[in-house]
Design goal:
Number of domains: 3
Strand order of the largest sheet: 2-3-1-4-5
Number of strands: 5
CATH architecture of the largest domain: 3-Layer(aba) Sandwich
CATH superfamily of the largest domain: P-loop containing nucleotide triphosphate hydrolases
Helix content: 55-70%
CATH topology of the largest domain: Rossmann fold
CATH class of the largest domain: Alpha Beta
Distance between the termini: 73 Å
Strand content: under 5%
Length: 578
């Protein structure tokens, strides 16, 4: 390669105005990772020819490699300015915007590419990944399915389809796609990683162990497999061995957050609480610095709760016009509570009853509320019967999308804990709705939220800081109490601590509230949990365990770290009689 450099330098002496020589020399320096000299040569190419697209594009690529996003974007845009249809620069610009979580900008550039060339596979693939990241799963699937129509051997598309199916809870179909890749390419490491994640997340530990052993034989030098082995040890309750592997290895930025969360949880289980809190803090700080976190404002969700507090008052509610509800023969049931209050455990227990189906973590209420006129709560004052009917129809349409077949004799429970903040709106549309309210010691609940690796959104961003988590808990539960003071809410309350102390008594109380008969299958809820394809919450590995008391009153073990939040929550601790 050094001989090549000498030859090109000789050519440059002979032809100092020939941009191709500088361009070729720059490419060699890229291979040598000598980015300063690469930049110097590419800069000469665009100085000599202001319209040299490839020069601007390569300058952008180097600055992207150097993590200088601002300069990278500048040069990609310069190339596009010269030629608006220059796909290489448009593609690179779309990718960089996607990497820094500026999804709207990225989306616009991917669309631009696909307008120029609808069959441009790299853009279809990365656009699909972006759509998945912004929860547009159906649109993402269309991208990957189109890729397979174009090229049936494009392995990434099968892997990406599998990743979407994991998130939608269709784990077995996802596994089928990952295995399809391995038939086409038995040495596809990404598919092995995806299979490991799928088996672990769906509690199929024997398959997880089998794939782990198999992949270690094929890829003995892949250090990341030690990370998956540490998770296997964690799931087998070999916490110290898991800690040893996690602490002595660097698995790269992709796994750093998960590594710290698993370290923290392992230390928690062996009662080394100071070390546990240290790693929970580190994991949350890393998450807070991520590009994804920058998309969310923790104040925004709190502001939305304040709007609800200001609107849902006795003064406003008594002005509501009367709606004839006689024609509304079905009223839904909602499982609500602050996150980490025991809703996933309740969900798993209740769905064990043959007459109960639980729809887990689907934004059905939010889709219904999108129909509120002008997105303004004040429109509830004189809402018409037809508007209410339309919103109910939208809600039940969403239910039908998430169940196999509607049966009037069954009870469908909408389990999304933070629907607790939407109780006022729900009661305007469903005055006879029922609610199962899960309660847990407020400080335990907040601490547990801080200890979870949640998928980020406007609400969950608050859990990256324990004081913010406490403020969100206080605001949420005060809103619930406000609802309870102005509406006659048909609800049953169940405390997490009571449930684990006397399981049968407390579940029987909920079953009576639902007007159902006791069924012995409720006692075998762990079988239900194990047979589920996917549990879409951070509790997925806990609900397959026998009921245990490790998490009850956990806050007392972390008292020294919770000094700032105890005063925020003390009134609610008394209110719920803890």
């Amino acid at each position: 390669m050094f001989n090549q450099i000498k030859k090109i330098e000789e050519l440059i002496k002979l032809e100092p105005q020939n941009i191709i020589n500088y361009f070729n020399l720059g490419n060699i320096y890229i291979k040598l990772k000598n980015y300063n000299l690469a930049l110097k040569n590419f800069q000469i190419t665009v100085d000599l020819d202001k319209n040299f697209l490839q020069g601007y594009n390569n300058l952008g690529n180097i600055y992207k490699e150097l993590k200088n996003t601002k300069e990278a974007i500048k040069f990609f845009k310069q190339a596009i300015k010269i030629n608006p249809n220059y796909i290489n620069a448009i593609y690179n610009l779309a990718n960089i915007y996607s990497e820094i979580a500026m999804y709207e900008e990225a989306s616009n550039y991917y669309k631009k590419i696909l307008k120029i060339n609808p069959n441009y596979i790299p853009a279809l693939n990365n656009f699909g990944i972006l759509l998945k990241n912004i929860n547009m799963s159906n649109e993402a699937l269309k991208c990957f399915e189109k890729i397979i129509d174009i090229d049936k051997n494009y392995l990434r598309a099968y892997n990406n389809i599998g990743n979407i199916l994991i998130e939608t809870g269709e784990v077995n179909k996802a596994i089928h796609n990952y295995k399809k890749v391995l038939k086409l390419d038995p040495n596809n490491f990404i598919s092995y990683k995806n299979l490991l994640a799928a088996f672990e997340n769906s509690n199929q530990l024997s398959d997880y162990e089998k794939i782990l052993r198999q992949s270690k034989k094929i890829f003995p030098k892949e250090k990341v497999l030690d990370f998956y082995y540490s998770i296997f040890l964690f799931r087998k309750k070999k916490y110290k061995e898991s800690i040893n592997i996690l602490k002595k290895n660097d698995f790269g930025a992709e796994f750093e957050i998960k590594k710290n969360f698993f370290l923290a949880k392992a230390y928690d289980f062996i009662n080394e609480h100071d070390s546990a809190f240290k790693y929970f803090r580190k994991a949350n700080e890393l998450t807070n610095k991520s590009h994804e976190a920058k998309n969310f404002d923790r104040k925004k969700y709190l502001q939305s709760l304040e709007i609800k507090k200001n609107y849902f008052t006795k003064k406003n509610i008594i002005q509501w016009n009367q709606i004839d509800c006689k024609s509304f023969d079905i009223s839904p049931t909602f499982l609500i509570g602050f996150p980490r209050s025991g809703t996933t455990l309740l969900d798993t227990i209740l769905r064990s009853h043959p007459k109960i189906e639980v729809i887990e973590e689907k934004p059905m209420v939010l889709k219904m509320l999108n129909l509120i006129k002008n997105n303004n709560l004040s429109s509830f004052k004189n809402i018409s019967e037809s508007e209410v009917s339309e919103m109910r129809k939208e809600y039940f349409s969403e239910i039908n999308k998430n169940i196999k077949k509607f049966n009037k004799s069954n009870i469908y429970i909408d389990k999304l804990p933070l629907n607790i903040v939407n109780v006022g709106e729900i009661l305007r549309i469903f005055p006879n709705a029922k609610f199962i309210l899960a309660i847990r010691h407020p400080i335990d609940c907040v601490l547990s939220c801080y200890m979870q690796d949640f998928k980020l959104n406007e609400a969950m961003i608050n859990f990256l800081d324990i004081k913010s988590a406490a403020i969100l808990y206080k605001t949420t539960m005060e809103l619930w109490e406000q609802y309870n003071s102005i509406f006659k809410i048909n609800y049953v309350q169940i405390k997490y601590e009571d449930l684990i102390d006397d399981f049968e008594k407390n579940i029987k109380n909920v079953i009576r509230f639902l007007n159902l008969s006791w069924d012995k299958s409720l006692l075998d809820y762990r079988k239900t949990a194990i047979n589920r394809e996917k549990i879409s919450t951070p509790s997925y590995y806990q609900v397959v365990q026998p009921i245990y008391k490790h998490a009850a009153q956990r806050w007392e073990k972390y008292k020294t770290h919770l000094v700032k939040i105890s005063p925020i929550l003390e009134d609610l601790v008394k209110k719920y009689e803890y």
